[in-house]
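W.,

You were right to be curious about this one. When I first looked at the sequence I had no strong expectations either way, so I just let the prediction run and decided to look at it fresh. Below is the sequence, 260 residues in total, followed by the output.
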Amino acid sequence: MECLDTGGPLRAEVLNGGSFWRLVLDAPKGNILDASMVGALRRMFDKAAETPDLKGIIIEGEGDHFSFGASVEEHLPEQVGDMLAGFHGMFRSALACAVPLLAVVRGQCLGGGLEVAAFCHRVFAAPDARLGQPEIVLGVFAPVASLILTERAGRSRAEDLCISGRIVDAQEALAAGIIDEVHEDPGAAALAYARHNLLPRSASSLRFAVRAVRQEFSERFFERIAALEKLYLEELMATHDAREGLQAFLEKRKPVWRNS
C-alpha cells in the first residue's frame, strides 16, 4: 500500500489508485490532536486541494479510539493563542480543499476529536462509540463545536452537549444527527460508501458540489470562528476559572471555581 509523508503522527494511505486517502490519527491510545497532529492534518488538506484526482478522504483513529481531543497542555495561557490559530486553521484548510470527508469513529471521540469528526460530510461509527464536548468540565468552551454541532444536530442538541459536557453513546448520537450511520465495522462501511457513491463521480464536479452545499456554512464559519477565537482568548482566558479548570485537570484534582 502506498503511503504519503505527512510530517507528523498521521498515517496517510493511498487507496483505489489515488482516488481516496485514508488519514489515520496514529498516536494511540488517545490520538491527541496536539500541534504536531493538527499540523499534519492541515498539510494533508492543503495537499488535497492540489490533488485533482482525489475524490474523498477517510479519517479515523488508530487503535480503540478516534481521539480524546486536543492537547490540554496547549490550552494553557502561554500556548493557547498558537494552539487555536493552528487548530482553526486546520478547519479552514478542510473547507478550502472541498474534498468529501468521511469520518470513522470507534471508542471515544471527544472534544477536538468530535469537532474533526462532525466537520466531515459523513460520519460512520461503531456501536461502542462515545461522543461528547467535555470542554466545559475544564472551564472552557469549544469554538468549532459551537458552530458545527448546530449545523449537524440543531441548536437544542448542540447547546445540550456544549453546555453540559455530557457524553452520548452511538445510538443517541445517531438519533441526534451527530453521526450518520452505525456499523460493526465502520471503516469498511465508509470505504464501501466511498467506492459506491464517490468513485463513479467526477473529482472536479464533486468539489463543486461540496463547495455549493457548504457555501453558506463556509461563509458563516470563516466569520464566526474569528469572533469565537477572540472571545476565547481575550475574555475567557482572562478569567480565573478557565485557568483553574485546565490546571486542575493536569494536576488530577477537582477544580475550585470562583465563578469568575
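Here's what jumped out at me. The chain has a mean pLDDT of 98. And, maybe more interesting for your project: The longest helix spans residues 215-235.

Coffee later to discuss?

I.
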